[in-house]
Automatic annotation (TrEMBL):
Gene Ontology cellular component terms for the protein in this record: plasma membrane
Bilayer-crossing regions: 12-30, 51-72, 92-115, 140-160, 172-193, 205-226, 232-255, 296-317, 355-375, 391-409, 415-437
NCBIfam families: agcS (TIGR00835)
PANTHER family, alphabetized: AGSS FAMILY TRANSPORTER, SODIUM-ALANINE (PTHR30330), SODIUM_PROTON-DEPENDENT ALANINE CARRIER PROTEIN YRBD-RELATED (PTHR30330:SF7)
Membrane topology of the entry: Multi-pass membrane protein
Any one GO MF annotation of this record: amino acid:sodium symporter activity
Region (Disordered) residue spans: 476-497
Descriptive protein name: Alanine/glycine:cation symporter family protein
Family: Belongs to the alanine or glycine:cation symporter (AGCS) (TC 2.A.25) family.
InterPro entries: Na/Ala_symport
Length: 497
């Protein structure tokens, strides 16, 4: 099984995808005139603007929902894996992917808002499958993406998160993986059977708490070792370009693993973030596009960097060469994963590290599983627009919970390999789609900036901008609701001619 998975990944994660991800991020950064720099203040302001409605969630809830997908085991175990197989220089390339990926995240999230629609329950749904069909008119392509995403997020990716939860709990508390798997599945079922609103409420409370707590502990460790910061930064940057002794031979691996784990962690271009973006109640698509751009920064520049600095500053890592030989071996016998971060925190805070990382990993990974369920559910909803099989949602819940159990008891290598297949398939399909369908998102950004320059709170009129098939926006403006239960609802304005 491992050989088959590795063979498939050899094709999916070939050099063309690595270069495509970097190239597309640079391209969209140039096309948007580096909005990730120009609009940072606006991104932060928009995070806390807007309200939810009977149909959609607030901008902050959408941010929390997307962050629950972005901030996961990749921020702890993924960073450790990148350092093991790419050296400390892989961290630099994760930063590059995040910076450039912010432009990609804007485009895909704005497109999700432009082409969103309401499902049979009156809730907003959107994502790559929807904008591929409506924007490109390629239903067959949209179906391929939808099916691939259901398989990836419903079957392949949850196992990675579950594996990290189980291994982290076993390392910290000695609890067997089968026991932790059962506990996770029970809690998961209680939430996903409650619907989208319950998922959004859970993530908006847990995600900010877990991210800030994790960054705070990392900050303490960094402050206690502040004198080593220049050396650590020099090691990361120097290794990224093969200028540090011992790491020159794995320069290509530093780029490959940095890009691969960067995409896995921040998900820019992968096509997962747009699903949460489409669920937001906003007056203009660019608003949620900018919010989602900032979520990439939170994920990689803050949380991933926190992990990387803890690991490198305490020397709690190993580095393997191309042939499997040890280039750096500071944690003999420790497998790449949560164990690195646990050892790093434990070295500074004895008796605390193992427990803290296990708890952090649980929340990171569990909320990511919730996000994966929502993404898979949205694509099942897309499929159900044509086949109308309500029982598919129930089957999805059972399959996802089975995947969690399977991933918990399997080896980390197999779990990550299956996850990489899922991420790679979605990335290939979505990046090609947004390259073909970039114009509406760029038009929306220009329109937003023009209205802001006039001192207006931007609203979106696709007819005026020449954007077709944006049915939700043509039929009426998004309802304005003051509370999360839809108690004060102005309704939808009269239809335009």
């Amino acid at each position: 099984m491992n050989e088959l998975v590795n063979a498939i990944n050899g094709y999916i994660w070939s050099l063309p995808l690595i270069y495509l991800c970097l190239g597309v991020g640079l391209y969209f950064s140039l096309r948007t005139r580096f909005l990730q720099v120009r609009h940072i203040k606006e991104m932060v302001r928009l995070m806390f603007q807007g309200n939810s409605s009977a149909a959609g969630i607030s901008s902050f809830q959408a941010l929390a929902l997307s962050l629950s997908g972005r901030v996961g085991t990749g921020n702890i175990a993924g960073v450790a894996t990148a350092i093991t197989f790419g050296g400390p220089g892989a961290v630099f390339w994760m930063w590059v992917v995040a910076f450039l990926g912010a432009g990609t995240a804007f485009v895909e999230s704005a497109l999700a808002q432009i082409y969103k629609e309401k499902d049979d329950n009156g809730l907003y749904r959107g994502g790559p499958a929807f904008y591929i069909e409506k924007g490109l008119g390629m239903k067959w392509y949209a179906w391929i993406f939808a099916i691939s995403t259901v398989l990836a997020c419903g079957m392949l990716l949850p196992g990675v998160q579950a594996n990290s939860i189980a291994s982290g709990i076993e390392n910290a508390f000695g609890i067997p993986t089968t026991v932790s798997a059962a506990g996770v599945v029970i809690l998961l079922g209680m939430i996903i059977f409650g619907g989208v609103k319950r998922i959004a409420h859970f993530t908006q409370i847990v995600v900010p708490f877990m991210a800030l707590g994790y960054i705070l502990v990392a900050f303490v460790i960094i402050v206690l070792n502040i004198g080593q910061i220049p050396e650590v930064v020099s090691l990361i940057v120097g290794s990224a370009f093969g200028m540090k002794a011992g790491f020159g031979a794995i320069l290509g691996l530093a780029i490959e693993w940095g890009v691969k784990r960067g995409i896995y962690s921040n998900e820019a271009g992968q096509g997962t973030g747009p699903h949460a973006a489409a669920a937001a109640e906003v007056s203009h698509p660019a608003k949620q596009g900018l919010v989602q751009s900032f979520s990439v920064y939170i994920d990689t520049l803050f949380v991933c960097s926190a992990t990387a600095f803890m690991i490198i500053i305490t020397g709690a890592y190993n580095v393997m060469g191309k042939a499997g030989e040890a280039i750096v071996e500071k944690l003999p016998g420790v497998e790449a994963g949560p164990g690195y971060t646990q050892a790093a925190v434990e070295s500074v805070m004895p008796g605390f590290g193992g427990v803290f990382v296990a708890v952090a990993l649980f929340f990171f990974a569990f909320t990511t599983i919730l996000a994966y369920y929502y993404i898979a559910e949205t694509n099942v909803a897309y499929i159900n627009r044509k086949v109308h099989r309500p029982w598919l949602m129930f089957v999805l819940k059972l399959v996802l919970m089975a995947s969690v159990v399977y991933g918990s008891v399997k080896t980390a290598g197999l779990a990550w390999g299956l996850g990489d297949i899922g991420v790679g398939l979605m990335a290939w399909l979505n990046i090609v789609a947004i390259l073909l369908l970039q114009k509406p998102a760029l038009i929306a950004l220009k329109d937003y900036e023009a209205q802001k320059a006039e001192g207006l709170d931007p609203t979106f009129d696709p007819v005026k901008l020449g954007i077709k098939n944006a049915d939700h926006w043509v039929k009426g403006k998004p309802s304005r609701v003051a509370d999360e239960d839809g108690a004060i609802n102005s309704g939808v304005q009269a239809e335009r001619s």
